[in-house]
Structure prediction request, 246 residues.
Amino acid sequence: MRRRITFPLMATGAVLSTLAVAAPAQAHGYVSGPPSRQALCAQGRVPDCGQIKYEPQSVEGPKGLRNCHAGIAHFAVLNDDSRGWPATSVGSTVTFTWTNTVLHATSNWEYFIGGTRVAVFDGGGRPPGYTVSHTVNLGGWSGRQKLLAVWNIGDTANAFYSCVDLQIGGGGGPSPTPSPTPPAPTPTPSASPTNPPAPGGTWTTGRAYQVGDQVTYGGLTYRCRQAHTAIPGWEPPNVPALWSQV
Prediction:
């Protein structure tokens, strides 16, 4: 009996060990400025994007891909060049800002136009910050271009992908400041006399909201999806990663 009991336990341990090794990386991020295609979807500037509207940070696939949707079928809209994606007018030098919602060791960041790598930045195998900016010289390019930005994770076989539509030489000014983006997920704070739950009322800047809180804004009702403290620019209709309309 003892052998028959021990064997299943050992087998179970082996299965759990295998699952632990196979678990995917929990890093997520996307280019928020100039706005990538998934950022435009999250901001509601391009309609009918599907699921990517709610998780612009989740375009993850094997390293070495050269498409906008990482081969994920339900994000295929990002690879559809006929959707009329707005192009940001930029000069020959552009600063790209990544918003990272979960951090992970980084190999590097790469930037491509067509099949040409125009820039690479070493990550040193370290986790990045919640925002990372790279200034890229695009002096050899002009007109409308689709740039592919790639965040290569350091200790997995995966990468995160963002396509950014640019009109190079369309103004020569600095890259536009990215729209405010949600913070990294944080533990939901406990209710207290100084931070009571907010089951109703009007959305207010400076207030700490918890998951499940409901507010009104612009005559509509929204439910909090991620704990955060409200600041100007994070109004419920502007940040679907933080609020969903009820």
Remarks:
- The first strand starts at residue 28 and ends at 33.
- The helical segments are 2-22, 37-42.
- DSSP finds two helices and 14 strands in the chain.
- The mean pLDDT is 80.
